[in-house]
What we know:
Blueprint: E1 3-8, H1 17-32, E2 37-42, H2 53-60, H3 68-85, E3 89-93, H4 103-112, E4 119-122, E5 125-128, E6 134-140, H5 152-162, E7 167-173, H6 180-197
Parallel strand pairs: 1-2, 1-3, 3-6, 6-7
Antiparallel strand pairs: 4-5
Helix pairs in contact: 1-6, 2-3
Cofactor: FMN
Binding site for FMN: 10, 16-18, 96-99, 140-143
Family: Belongs to the azoreductase type 1 family.
Amino acid sequence: MKSLLIIKSSVMAGQSKSGALADEYQRIWLENNPGGKVTQRDLAASPIAALDGHLAGAFFTPEDQRTAEQEALVAQSDALITELKAHNDIVITAPMYNFTFPVQLKNYFDSIARAGITFKYTDKGPVGLLTEKRALVIASRGGIYPEGADNQTPLLRQFLGFIGIQDVEFVYAEGLNLGEESANASMAQAKQALTELA
């Protein structure tokens, strides 16, 4: 059975443009995959713990030596990775905040990047373990950024590749703060791109 995981990172809740585009993609995806499974995770509504000394210490402590507190800290990461592994298609919303993506998404990435679980070190460098998955990044921006002039795209592509997800597509909704005409045109263009990808 085909499965879709949608990871939303906007703090704007019902006003989120990237979230609205993700919902539109879900609708089209379900039309094309009747009976498919969809899971949505809202990182703003249900925040992931930030990486700190306690969490890092828990990650690096062997499983059979962890304290009860450390086990509880690792449990959320384990659940997120299990969820990610269970889905074929991944959608990530990445609104641009101060030239990068939200801290909520960074916390999620920090929680799922686990040596020996989602990637491994080899004598030829790190190798991602989450292969045979497809990712779609929906990036919304207030301004307009020429190809190669933003920080989001290369960082997101690098991280996803690091954990083994090489098949990555990007859909952009730009100029959303440049007036109603610009926003409407960009949203329509993004929806068309999502329809084609779904």
